[in-house]
Amino acid sequence: MPAFEPNIGLEVHAELNTKTKVFCGCSTAVGAAPNSQVCPVCLGFPGVLPVLNRKVVDYGLRLALALNCEITRPSIFERKGYYYPDLPKNFQISQKRAPLGRNGHIDLAVNGRPARVRISDVHIEEDAAKLLHPGDNREQTLVDFNRSGIPLLEIVSEPDIHSVEEAEAYMNAIRSVLRYLGISEARMEQGQVRFEASISLRPVGAQELGTRVEIKNLNSFRAVAGAIDYEIKRQTRALENDQTLEQETRLWDDDRQVTEPMRRKETAMDYRYFPEPDLAPLVIDEDWIARVRAELPELAEARRARFMEQYALSAYDAHVLTDDKALADFFEDTVRAGASAKAAANWLSVEFLRLLNDRQITVAEARITPQTLSDLIAMVDGGAVSALAAKTVFAHLFEKAGAPAYVVAQLGLAQISDESQLTAAVEEVIAENPDAVANFKAGNEKSIGFLVGQVMRKSGKRANPQLVNKLLRERLS
Predict the structure, then answer these.
(1) Beta-strand (E) ranges in 247-374?
(2) CA–CA distance, 393 with 282 (Å, rounded to integer)
(3) What is the DSSP string of 14-33?
(4) Model-level pTM?
(5) CA dihedral sign of residues 437, 440, 444, 447
(6) Would you call the peptide bond into 74 cis, given omega within 30 degrees of 0 as the criterion?
(7) How confident is the model at residue 21 (pLDDT cuts 50, 70, 90)?
(8) 323 and 463: one domain?
(9) How far apart are CA 333 and CA 462, in angstroms?
(10) What percentage of the chain reaches a pLDDT higher than 70?
């Protein structure tokens, strides 16, 4: 029985963070009342004329160049015809035959192994409206046109992905590029990045791709991973039983963790692409390309390598810190403020990220600043506050800002480094924990850590742990 190789291509639809829509002047701000950010253009009224947003083209150029694409000149806008309730004019302005960029690639690291995914194209298109089903009532559908006309960049990969792990690495890399370029917040929970996966299987060693199945309705990394895993297993079972696979579009049911048939897969011919008559071909000159290329920021992969070399960080720390541009910026600003790179990395990759995740907020929404963190690290290094108590101070600064020294005094967390003040606590802990004392005297070094922890607890996290360790060893030797 032959083994099968999965071949996976991903389409990524990224909402851009421009202030206005792609073909009209309506606002793109989120949170407005339904159908309040609309005009005849984005409502699809007959006779209206689209006007291309230059910023969208600029953003598209940034992404295409960052993904090593060739810039198409001229690129052409086309009408992609299909009917759906969220598209009243019955076509979407997109790009097919002459997209903004094509023939690019992105390099990944998957479980320590390098991998390259080719980028078929990067193109500009408009988003459709949003369909709502009140109370999950599928018999009633409401339409909010605020999203209609929001600018999208679609990134289409070649089927160079062969596993769930590679798909996850690819999605993370694309999201990172979008954020580093500053063209999209790429927040999946707000629908700013959406995915479609095309999956086919072929016998290992075969050259021709198998029957392609496209999966829609993927709005999270977890959904993409689940759909790919399920579809690989479904197609493998079918091929092993000599069943014929249909080229079709399927939907992902996140509750049941299965894909279900939606419709026969369309081809380009089904969409009846033809040039958009109201938009001239887009010709981008060399000066524009050169300017955008010169303004490209250092991306995550290059920054990761620099962090390891410049700051002597481990590969793990460098990866964690550079995954989010805002976090990487915070780290470097903290080091510039005087903190050691290792201490800044430890605080940010552990306590800072934990608090961000707990509160579901971004780096920008945290109240603590790089200078404040640097000052707190200096207090720990100088013995003014213990590392354990500093975590309490950090959490306070994260929520309410302020000066570390003031917070330490306000909370009564100044470190105790006076032997006379700690002696009583040390003696009490020795008396209360005879088993740990016996274990330490028998050669178990780990027991001393337990005893230090007990003294720290008695002192309200204020004891100097190095001094406590010294006092314990003196009394137990």
Answers:
(1) 248-253, 258-264, 274-275
(2) 55
(3) EE---SB-SSS--B--TTPP
(4) 0.83
(5) positive
(6) yes
(7) very high
(8) no
(9) 29
(10) 95
Q: Tally the domains of the chain.
A: 3
Strand pairing class (78-81; 91-94): antiparallel
Are 127 and 15 in contact by the 8 Å Cβ rule? The answer is yes
Residue 452 sits in which domain range? 419-476
Q: What pLDDT, in 10s, does the model give residues 457-474? A: 777 777 777 776 777 787
Q: In this structure, which amino acid lies at residue 319?
A: H
The reply to whether 405 and 437 lie within a common domain is no
Confidence tier at 1 by pLDDT (50, 70, 90): very low
Q: What are phi and psi of 239, to 5 degrees?
A: -70, -35
Indicate whether 47 pLDDT > 60: yes
Average pLDDT over residues 60-68: 98
User: What CA–CA distance (Å, rounded) separates 132 from 150?
Assistant: 17
Instruction: Output the DSSP codes for 196-216.
Output: EEEEEEEETT--S----EEEE
Domain co-membership, 230 together with 310: no
**Owner of token pair 């992609």:** 80
* Whether pLDDT at 378 is above 80: yes
Q: Average pLDDT for residues 54-81, to the nearest whole number? A: 96
Instruction: State whether 223 and 329 are in the same domain.
Output: no
What is the rounded distance in angstroms from the CA atom of residue 302 to the CA atom of residue 291? Answer: 20
Q: Which of 290, 309, 329 is the last residue of a domain?
A: 290
Q: Are residues 307 and 282 in the same domain?
A: no
Query: What gap in Å lies between CA 316 and CA 318, rounded to an integer?
Result: 5
257 and 335 housed in the same domain: no
Question: What are 115's two structure tokens?
Answer: 């991998």
Residue 256 exposure: Cα atoms within 13 Å on the Cβ side: 6
d(CA 270, CA 288): 35
- For residue 474, the Cα-to-chain-centroid distance in whole angstroms is 51
pLDDT at 470: 73
Residues 141 and 206 in one domain: yes
Same-domain check for residues 168 and 212: yes
State which of 257, 290, 323 marks the end of a domain.
Answer: 290
